[in-house]
Design a protein that fits this description.
Layout lengths: L4 E5 L6 E2 L7 E3 L2 E2 L11 H5 L7 H5 E5 L2 H9 L9 E3 L10 H4 L1 H11 L4 E5 L8 H10 L2 E6 L5 H7 L6 H14 L3 E8 L7 H13 L5 E5 L6 H12 L4 H7 L7 H17 L14 H6 L4
Parallel strand pairs: 1-5, 3-6, 6-7, 7-8, 8-9, 9-10
Antiparallel strand pairs: 2-3, 4-5
């Protein structure tokens, strides 16, 4: 098993301004992720710090130890306008080390205390630990917890997301949050062409999301930018060599062809209609348009 090195650093800023997305700000308690999803878009950011987006992404985890304190400083500024903050856009805020540092929880408490709405993406089941704070956020300012689930197939899950909790455990965690009053749902994202885009796979995830009470379901297709693309193509060469040429054709740039993306979105929308997953209860998160776009950053 790969040895993980955790490097503690002090952050100078907590909130990151985001361009060309449906949210203006993001926050990431960690950099790198032991979940090791082969398609993870955040791998590319490791290369910006002279780290290997393949090996180092899962073995060198940066821990921003002072982030909650810096966040409170940022939120207390007179210029802060309580805009929605996306939590976990470049790392999973509930990867296992959160059990030790509790950085994510302390940041959520800061958002609650400063009446700032959030949306949060995770594959981690530890999020249930913070149901009390998430419920406060849901009631006071707005909160959406998005569970990324690409497949329920055990073989596909182990290949694509080797370090993550089992998808069924994520669904159970989501259901617990929903039953506690938290606005939570599923991101069927990314849809991986040729691997998780079958009708059976998409329907199985959608049906399970409905059965576990998902308040919403968003989706998007895999995109591959520099850093992530090199790693993912290497993964394909080992696990799905017959798909390499297909991906070279589909991804000359970062995004799959628009026609493919549109067809898959329509297919998932049809399944949402069948299994009655719409905006079942938007009262818990007023900026509801945002959660559908969160899949863009997975």
């Amino acid at each position: 098993m790969e040895r993980v090195h955790y490097e503690e650093v002090e952050a100078r800023n907590a909130l990151n301004r985001v361009a060309n997305m449906s949210f203006a700000w993001s926050l990431n308690p960690y950099r790198g992720c032991v979940h090791g999803c082969h398609y993870c878009f955040a791998r590319r950011y490791h290369s910006l710090y002279d780290l290997d987006p393949s090996k180092d992404f899962t073995s060198v985890i940066i821990v921003k130890t002072n982030l909650p304190e810096v966040l409170r400083r940022d939120l207390s500024r007179p210029s802060w306008r309580n805009q929605t903050v996306a939590v976990g856009t470049a790392t999973d805020p509930y990867q296992p080390i959160e059990g030790k540092y509790r950085i994510t929880r302390r940041c959520l408490e800061a958002f609650r205390d400063y009446y700032t709405p959030i949306s949060l993406v995770t594959k981690g089941t530890m999020v249930v630990r913070d149901a009390d704070v998430l419920l406060d956020l849901t009631r006071m300012s707005g909160c959406a917890v998005c569970f990324s689930i690409t497949t329920l197939d055990q073989d596909l899950w182990r290949k694509l997301e080797p370090g993550t909790p089992p998808p069924k455990k994520r669904l159970e965690a989501m259901e617990k949050l929903v039953l506690s009053g938290v606005f939570a749902g599923v991101l069927l994202a990314p849809v991986v062409p040729g691997i998780t885009d079958t009708q059976d796979n998409l329907e199985e995830v959608t049906r399970a999301a409905s059965e576990h009470g998902a308040r919403f379901l968003g989706t998007n297709v895999l995109y591959l930018k520099e850093g992530t693309k090199e790693h993912f193509m290497g993964f394909l060469q080992q696990a799905y060599p017959d798909l390499v040429e297909t991906y070279q054709r589909l991804y000359p740039a970062s995004y799959a062809p628009k026609g493919l993306r549109d067809r898959l979105r329509l297919k998932v929308q049809g399944l949402k209609d069948i299994y009655d997953i719409g905006d079942r209860d938007t009262a818990g998160f007023q900026p509801t348009a945002r959660y559908g776009q969160m899949s863009m950053v997975l």
